[in-house]
Amino acid sequence: MQEQIRNVAIIAHVDHGKTTLVDSLLYQSGMFRNEELDRLAGGQHGLIFDSNPLERERGITILAKNCAIEVERGDIRYRINIIDTPGHADFGGEVERVLSMADGALLLVDSYDGPMPQTRFVLQKALENNLTPMLIVNKADRVDGRPAEVVDEVFDLLVSLEAGDDALDFPIFFCSGRDGWCSEEVDGERFDLQRIFDAIIEHVPAPPVEVEAPLQLRVSTLDHSEYVGRIAIGRIAAGTLSAAEEIKVLSEDTAPRTARAQEVHLFEGLGRKKVQQVKAGDICAVIGIDGIEIGDTIACAKEPMALPALRVDEPTLHMTFRVNDGPFVGRDGKYVTSRQLKDRLDKELERNVALRVVQGDRPEEFLVSGRGLMHLGILLETMRREGFEMCVGMPRVIERLVDGKWHEPFEHLVLESPIDAQGSAMALIGERRAEMIDMTSRAGSDMVHMEFKIPARGLIGLRTRLLTATAGRVISHHSYLEHGPKAGPIPRRSSGSLIAVETGQATPYSLDALYDRGTFFIEPGDQIYEGQVVGEHSRDRDLEVNVVRTKKLSNVRASGKDDSTNVRPLKRLKLEEALEFVVEGELVEITPANIRIRKQLLKESDRRRAGRKARNES
Ligand SMILES: Nc1nc2c(ncn2[C@@H]2O[C@H](COP(=O)(O)OP(=O)(O)OP(=O)(O)O)[C@@H](O)[C@H]2O)c(=O)[nH]1
Ligand SMILES: [Mg+2]
User: Fold this and answer.
1) What is the overall mean pLDDT for the chain?
2) How many whole angstroms separate alpha carbon 223 and alpha carbon 217?
3) Is the CB of 86 under 6 A from ligand 1?
């Protein structure tokens, strides 16, 4: 039987249903028994393809993943390599690099939301990679959907991205990935997802194959196995690759070297299978090449020719990672030294392409740059689960010097707000130097849709505050737009910190006495150290507090205040909330069991001296 290949990436804004659709495609592929697949599903959204523990916990895709589905049409067997991508803006780097493996893209757009900031970003990247798009208006089962308008909005988007005429001529499906059906018209007859396979076969071009040309494969993703070490994944652009073949590794910054591709694997269903040979056009995994990196070309040993290196957008946010030098260091972590921290960051750099790490001012300090708070937050969360302890400083946006002037990153922010919450949302956005680009209210809905250009700086902490100010009713999304001349100052937070002045165990007695000073991050019984930030002050300056005081014993029974009578507002900070909270001079201490905030200088006298020095210098 003749075999043909199709390579498609599934792209969309966050939560528009990519992974759910991939799962349904797996179910309807006929390659598996349903029970077999049911067993693999899990996590918040019950998905098979979001397989990593953090993905399951958060209900989002973090890493792009491949699968391959085989379908037969007439006497041709088609291998369809499907690449699921993450939709959250912070993982844009992940999307950019896997797109280089695809020839077509299924662009999913929610039938209610329409195109959102990340839709624009991924579509733009798909067009830059010359991918043929197919539009899937997804979640077509939604009763509040507005599929016809959404199609128009996608056309407008394509026009504004200056897409060529051929890109405007694409097939459109109305689809419920969750319920496993699709239709070619709004409210038209419903078919199973075989139609989607048919459309991929028909519209996505077969990969350009020059089987006779010298081998070229650019590494798009890395995987790792304890047994075989590093696994390079990419599409063969030209030639063939056989198991045990001698090849050359071409890298941007090192000299070409010879290596052996010990094994080659093809994707098959959810797994991979070892094969003797892979031909141009197919996506494969190569085992046994030590030290290979993303972007390297695996080339023919006799006539090595490099493919252009992978380019991904620059990071926009950075912060310092440093060893934990707090008094509780090592209490619950396994890895605490700067050596261990450095090795771990080096390992991360191998596969996390949108990440940058440079040595900081001191040996125990590293400046880590990424795409956003979530991107860096996921890394920190992963490290803490592995047993690392570290401290990180306040996240800052990365500025660039353009014609002698500092430029800062701006983002495209979209808000969906109920009309009655619009005022509170606008007030928050206003003080953050956002410029409104567009505002529309949708017919028959009490929601307003607003779009802004906002300095990336202004986004730090914005989401949490928006949710608080509007009782959780505002939805916000953003993605990187451009660097531009610096906007004016933006308040980071209006409150000060409550700082512990003594080390010990927090007591109900002392916390009760302080209950009206602000919101505490700690509870009675917690171990606290001097210089730890134990809460958020209700006023705009820092306040030193003693939370470890115990009640003086006396014979006289004081009236009233005896037991824990006051209601203490408690807020346990999650990692990302802590990163949004810290200001200059403070650090987030991250350990497997605790997220604490502390002053960089733990002693009050040191802080006072440093404050005086800074004032004198300015
Ligand atoms: N009504 C409806 N809901 C859907 C459909 N497909 C997905 N959803 C829901 O949308 C949410 C997000 O689905 P995912 O498949 O995780 O979305 P995603 O695009 O992969 O998200 P990220 O990978 O995090 O960007 C889940 O709660 C799904 O149950 C659909 O066809 N109809
Ligand atoms: Mg997903």
Assistant:
1) 90
2) 16
3) yes
* Cα–Cα–Cα angle for 405, 410, 416, rounded to 5 degrees: 160
Write down the residue that tokens 């070409």 correspond to: 256
| pLDDT on residue 566 | 59
Considering 262, 280, 300, which residue would you say is the last residue of a domain? 300
User: What is the C-alpha to C-alpha distance for residues 474 and 486, in angstroms, rounded to an integer?
Assistant: 27
Residue 563 scores a pLDDT above 80: no
Structural domain boundaries, residue 132? 2-203
Strands 2-12 and 76-84: parallel
> 267 and 296 share a domain?
yes
The answer to whether the CB of 85 is under 6 A from ligand 1 is no
Residue type, 562: D
If pLDDT is split at 50, 70 and 90, which confidence band does 579 have? very high
pTM for this entry? 0.86
| Residue with CA closest to ligand 1 atom 24 | 60
Give the pLDDT band (50/70/90) at residue 554.
low
Query: For residue 273, is it within any domain?
Result: yes
Determine the Cα–Cα distance for residues 583 and 581; give it in Å rounded to an integer. Answer: 7
Output the pLDDT for position 81: 95
Same domain, 192 and 294: no
Nearest atom, ligand 1, residue 108 CA: 19
Q: Is residue 562 part of a domain?
A: no
Examine the domain organization and report whether 147 and 234 are in the same domain.
Answer: no
Name residues whose C-beta falls within 8 Å of residue 540's C-beta, 6 or more positions apart in sequence: 494, 495, 496
Q: Are residues 9 and 93 in the same domain?
A: yes
H-helix or E-strand containing 512?
helix 508-513
Domain boundary among 243, 276, 300: 300
Total domain count, the chain: 3
For residue 88, is it within any domain? Answer: yes
Name, in order, each residue with C-beta under 8 angstroms of 5's C-beta and a sequence gap of 6 or more: 78, 79, 80, 81, 206, 207, 281, 282
What is the average pLDDT across 416-442?
88
Both structure tokens of 457? 């700086």
pLDDT at residue 443 tops 80 = no
Would residue 574 count as lying in a domain? no
Handedness of CA 554, 560, 565, 566 (dihedral sign): negative
pLDDT digits 0-9 by tens, 141-189:
999 999 999 999 999 999 888 887 777 888 999 999 999 999 999 999 9
Nearest CA to ligand 1 atom 3: 139
Residue 562 has pLDDT above 80, yes or no: no
Same-domain pairing of 88 and 130: yes
Distance 17 CA to ligand 1 centre (A): 3
The protein residue whose alpha carbon is closest to atom 30 in ligand 1 is 139
Q: Which of 11, 14, 20, 49 to mutate to test the pocket of ligand 1 (most atoms within 8 A of CB)?
A: 20
Contact 137, 147 (CB under 8 A): yes
Ligand 1 pocket, mutate which of 10, 11, 15, 176 (most atoms under 8 A from CB): 15
* Co-location of 110 and 221 in the same domain: no
Place 557 in a pLDDT band, splitting at 50, 70 and 90: low
pLDDT tens-place string over residues 54-70: 899 889 999 899 999 99
Q: Which CATH number does the domain housing residue 417 bear?
A: 3.30.70.240
